[in-house]
Amino acid sequence: MKHARDLTGQMPVDQMVQLDGLNGLTVAALRAWNAGGALRAHTLLCDRMAEPMALAAFEALQDLTEVLGPHIRRPLRCHAPNCACVGLDEAAFARFVQEAALGDREDALLLASILVQPRAILPLTDAAARLGLCLHRAALRAPQSRIPEPASATRH
Q1: Is residue 95's pLDDT more than 90?
Q2: 23 with 98: CB under 8 angstroms?
Q3: Cβ neighbour number for residue 5 with a 10 Å cutoff
Q4: Which long-range contacts (CB under 8 A, 24 or more apart) does 103-107 make?
Q5: How high is the pLDDT of residue 108?
Q6: Is residue 129 predicted with pLDDT exceeding 80?
Q7: Is residue 78 packed enough to be buried (19+ CB in 10 Å), middle (13-18) or exposed (0-12)?
C-alpha cells in the first residue's frame, strides 16, 4: 500500500540559523533573485561581501539563472526573503551549489540532472561552482562569533 505524501518544494526542512555560511548565502541569494530579480540579488551580494567578490558572485548567479530558465524541469519553490524556514527546494539547491564548489563534481552533476534537462547539466554545474566559490570565500571572510572570555581569569 502506498502512502500519499505532500512533499512540495516549499515544505520546511531546516532553519536559516542552522545553515553554515555557504548554504545560508546560497539560500539568501536564491530568495533575493526569486523575490526581486537581479537588482535585489545584486544588492544582497553587495551588502554581504566586498564589491569585486559581489560582482563575480552576481555574474555567476546570472549565468546560473540563464541556464536554469529555459532548461529547468520545474520551478524552484522559495520561501519569503525573511522567512526563518528553509524549504526543500532551497536546501537541495544549496546542497547542489556546495557540491559543485567544494565537493565531488560527480555528485554535483547528479544533483544538476535532477534540476535541469541533460544538455544543461554541465553549464549549470560550472556556474554553480563559480557562485559557490565566491560565496564560500565571502563566508570565510565574515567575522566569526568569538568564544566568550571566561568570567574568571583563572585558567585550568
Answers
A1: yes
A2: yes
A3: 7
A4: 105/129
A5: 96
A6: yes
A7: buried
Secondary structure (DSSP) of the chain: -PPP----TT-EEEEGGGS-HHHHHHHHHHHHHHHHHHHHHHHHHHHHS-HHHHHHHHHHHHHHHHHHHHHBSSPPP---TT-SEEEHHHHHHHHHHHHHHHS-HHHHHHHHHHHB-GGGHHHHHHHHHHHHHHHHHHHHHSPPPPPPPPSSS---
Choose among 31, 44, 32, 25: nearest CA to 140. 25
Lookup: cell for 41 = 540579488
- Chain-centroid distance of CA 87 in Å reads 12
* CA dihedral sign of residues 12, 16, 20, 24: positive
Q: Which whole-number Å values give the CA distances from 3 to 7, 27, 88, in the listed order?
A: 12, 30, 19
pLDDT above 80: residue 137 = yes
